[in-house]
Amino acid sequence: MLFHFDRRKKSEKEKKPPRFLVLRRKWLTLGAAVLAAAAIFAAVNYPAAVSASAATRQLPIYCVQRDQKVCSISFDAAWGADNTQKILDVLKEYGVTCTFFVVGNWADQYPEQAKAIVDSGNELMNHSNAHDHYNSLTADQIIADVNTCNDKIEALTGVRPTLIRCPFGEYDDHVISTIRSIGMEPIQWDVDSLNWKDYDAPTICKRVTSKLAPGSIVLFHNAALHTPEALPEILECMIREGYTVLPISQLILHESYTIDHTGRQFPAEAAQ
pTM score, two decimals? Predict the structure, then answer.
């Protein structure tokens, strides 16, 4: 017995997709069209929202573009004060003034040390009130913390801080924009002594002098070991190299400036 197959009809059936695939393709096509229309609508009607996603990151000042050999030395005071007077004596011996970033609670605990810093001609600036993680705080909480520390320093010294170093050196766009919204300038550093690791004096000295450049901001901690021992040699090296040490408020630019992606501050015209 012979069986006859209609190959033409079978081929047509194979080419025709199942009904559920046809429906699925229609819905996918419709969905893509809706998404495309929504994208076009957003781009046309909300261009600011599109450009905002590519906005420049907010950065503190790490260093300053300076042609002259000038730099700044800074000390963070968040715990302890045993070495503070020794540091002030060394700075006085070399005729150098620096910037101290102090925590409000530290100023509460060591008010005489805070006054001595200013009385010796150094700057006393803000390092937060309680050394909290600003990244986890709201804008209102950051502002309240900054102002509390500023109030304490002003009550002790008669001078209100204009600069701040964020606790732990931590920040994000939210933190930096909040700080600048109240007229404060956030300051970081480009040379870290790492003296808080209790390195010996020669190691601290080498770390600082090998990285120093015009416009640098150097970070120390006032309570770290061996800093009073390392400081004279560091200052001697700076003098030999022709550097002048300035308080940070005199190193940075206050008008018509820009900050690049590394945190280096430039005069606005130099960035064009």
Answer: 0.79
Report d(CA 56, CA 258) in Å as an integer.
11
CB-based contact 149:104 (threshold 8 Å)? yes
At a CB cut-off of 8 Å and minimum separation 6, what does 203 contact?
A: none
- 211 contacts 241 by C-beta, under 8 angstroms: no
Tell me the mean pLDDT in the region 142-161.
98
89 is catalytic: no
Q: Examine the residue annotation and report whether 76 is marked as an active-site residue of this protein.
A: yes
- Rounded to 5°, the CA angle 247-165-195 comes to 80
pLDDT at 271: 58
* Residue 34 three-state SS: helix
Tokens of 47: 């261009």
Domain spanning 63-271: which CATH class is it, in words?
alpha beta
Domain locations in the chain?
7-52, 63-271
Axis crossing angle, helix 111-119 with helix 139-157, rounded to the nearest 10: 70
Other CB atoms within 10 A of residue 206 CB: 15
Spacing of C-alpha 62 from chain mean position: 7
pLDDT band with cut points at 50, 70 and 90 for residue 269: confident
Catalytic entry in 6, 221, 254, 261: 221
Q: Classify the C-alpha dihedral 74-78-79-85 as positive or negative.
A: positive
Q: Which of 6, 76, 119, 131 is catalytic?
A: 76
- Reference 100, options 86, 82, 81, 118; nearest CA is 118
Mean pLDDT of the chain: 85
User: What's the CA gap between 226 and 256, in Å, rounded?
Assistant: 40
